[in-house]
Amino acid sequence: MAKKVVATLKKGDGKHYAKVIRAIKSEKTGAYTFREEIVPAEMVKETLAKK
Hints:
Oligomer: single chain
Largest sheet: 2 strands, antiparallel
């Protein structure tokens, strides 16, 4: 499924978007979960700076 999303992003209008994947640590178990977001390319640094 991830391949399909990435392939869609490479088409025409999708060139100005980036897929951001973040590892978030659980307070209770200590395990990491991953959160994926598709954001405009110019907002990548702002998105990564947020907690």
